[in-house]
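Re: Re: ligand-bound prediction request (bumping)

Still looking for help on this. To restate: I need the protein modeled with pyridoxal-5'-phosphate bound, output as structure tokens. Inputs repeated here so nobody has to scroll up.
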Amino acid sequence: MKQSDRTSQLRPSPIRAISEGAPPGAVPMGLGEPGWALPEPACLALAQQQGPCAYGPNTGLPELKEAVAAFHGAKASQVMLGCGSQGVLYALFQAWLDPGDAVLVPDPGFLAYPALAHMAGAEPVSYALAPDFTLDPVRFRAALDRTPSAKVAVVNHPGNPTGAGTSAQALSEVAQACAARGILLLSDEVYRELCLGERGPSLRDVSDTGLVLGSVSKAWGAPGLRVGWAIGDPAWLAPARLVHAYMVTAPARPAQLAAMALLEASPAVLAEARTHLRVRWEAFAGAFALAFGPSPRRTAGGFYHWQPLPRTALADPMAFCVRLRDQGGVVVVPGMAFGEGGRGHIRLSYAGEPDQIREGVRRLAPFWNEA
Ligand SMILES: Cc1ncc(COP(=O)(O)O)c(C=O)c1O
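Reply:
Sorry for the wait, this slipped through. Here it is.
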């Protein structure tokens, strides 16, 4: 029997594929997840659970919706909960896209966006970022103008894989362009709280259109809980809530209770996360300056460094990354996994243990210095 057309273009994530083939002792700088322990409020909430482990409401626990709403200065009715922000994104795409529709996605950008568009039968259409990988409203509008079939657009700031952010002005212009066309703008802000300098703008600061995506996976240190959300006009959320309810009923109850404990303890949990991030950034930046020469530039947020490839690796970036893994003993992600715009870079994650980060950078440097 023939596999569905919608799913036949799907391939395993190159991030997982390159990580899974790693030799023993390889330093993991591939995966984008916090390497620090689950914060205590979540551990306590998980340990304290007793009585029936009920399904709970299909739209998630009202107390968790309240906690997310309070964090964002929104109403509980404006919150959709899901199994990670990716579960929310899947449901939104299913709810709002038909075959023949297009989704504007950043290039380079998080690799789930195009895959989820295909799964909804839609076409991902990439838009270029500025040369420094920040959001560029001129390039965004040009892509929008070229794509009459666009129904949804995604922006991501700070971005995966580059860590680059956006100005409030650029975000506002993009929001206006989407509102003028009547299309749904999704502002993926899962890395927004994970910053060392000033926190970047939210779509909610500059517009009352579109939806903001958030998650406990990054700054709240809990990717394995699989709890994320979208915030915005309930009219956009309603059909996606139904999709999500048929898909999985609701996020796992223990995870929702743990996420609630994290949200309620946000000031302490986020301050601690920034300390974890600072320690890792300092380990990375120190080792990088020593091994590569110039200090790396700090990004708007997240835990990624976007490293240009040496000239000699440009012809076959994948082969170079496999060499880094198998001969150098460091797992990294080829930038081309994130779109054509990433072809000349690799993504290094410094979310792991500081000693490992230092060792990883030390092992990588000879591959640049030989070039
Ligand atoms: C930009 C971006 N958005 C969304 C996600 C999905 O996160 P989650 O489903 O864990 O909330 C990720 C995960 O790496 C990401 O990098």
